[in-house]
Amino acid sequence: MDSGRLLVLTWLLASLVFMTSYSGILTSMLTVPRITIPIDSLADLVAQSDLPWKLEAGAMMFNILADSTKPEYQETLKRMNGTFYSCWASREDLVEGKFAAICDKTSQKKVMSWDFSTTGQCHLYITSETIYFSQMSMAFRINSSYLEGTDRM
C-alpha cells in the first residue's frame, strides 16, 4: 500500500517537473522581440529623408500614383529619385541599401530569395502596406491547343 502511494507521488512530481519545464521552454520560444520598422508604408517613406526611392521603369505604379488622390501617393511620385530597369536587375543595389524600390511583390520576393540564398541572410523588408492588389490570369481562345496543358497546372 505504501509503495503504491510512493510510486504515484513520484509519478505526479515527475509529471509536474516535466510539464513546468515544457511550458517554460514553449513560452520562451514563442516570445518574439519587438522590432520597430522605420518604413512600413508610403507615408513613412515620404516622411523620411535618409533613404532615396525609385520606381520600376514602365510599371503601372506610375499610373496608380499619378491617378490617386491620396497625398502620400502624390508626394511619392513627386519626390522619387528616378527609375530603375527592374527589381531583379537592381538587386545588388537594393541589398547594398542604395535606394528603396517600389515594385511588385513577386519581384521583391524573388530578390529577397536571391539575397538569402547567396548570403545566408536577408537584408531586405517588404512593407505591410499594399499599394495595389493584382491577380494575374491567362485567357485562351475556345478550343485552344494550349488549354489542355494549362488545365494540368
Short note summarizing the structure:
The protein has 153 residues and is mainly α.
- Unreliable spans: none
Strand content: 5-15%
What is the helical fraction, as a range of percent? 40-55%
Helix-strand makeup class: mainly alpha
Q: What is the strand arrangement across the widest sheet?
A: 2-1-3
End-to-end distance, in Å? 68 Å
Number of strands: 3
Gyration radius over CA:
26 Å
Q: If helices are DSSP runs of H or I spanning 4 or more residues, what is the number of helices?
A: 7
Order of helices and strands: HHEHHEHEHH
Main sheet summary: 3 strands, parallel
Average pLDDT across residues?
86
What best-fitting shape do the alpha-carbon axes yield?
A: elongated
Keywords:
single chain; 153 residues; mainly alpha; 3-stranded parallel beta sheet; 3 strands; elongated
Word description of this protein:
The protein is mainly α and 153 residues long. It contains 7 helices and 3 strands, in the order ααβααβαβαα. The chain has a 3-stranded parallel sheet with strand order 2-1-3, with no helix packed on it. It is elongated and about 85 Å long. The N and C termini lie far apart (68 Å). The model has no long low-confidence stretch (mean pLDDT 86).
Layout of SSEs?
Elements: H1 2-30, H2 42-47, E1 53-56, H3 61-67, H4 71-79, E2 83-84, H5 91-95, E3 100-102, H6 105-119, H7 146-151
Parallel strand pairs: 1-2, 1-3
Helix pairs in contact: 3-4
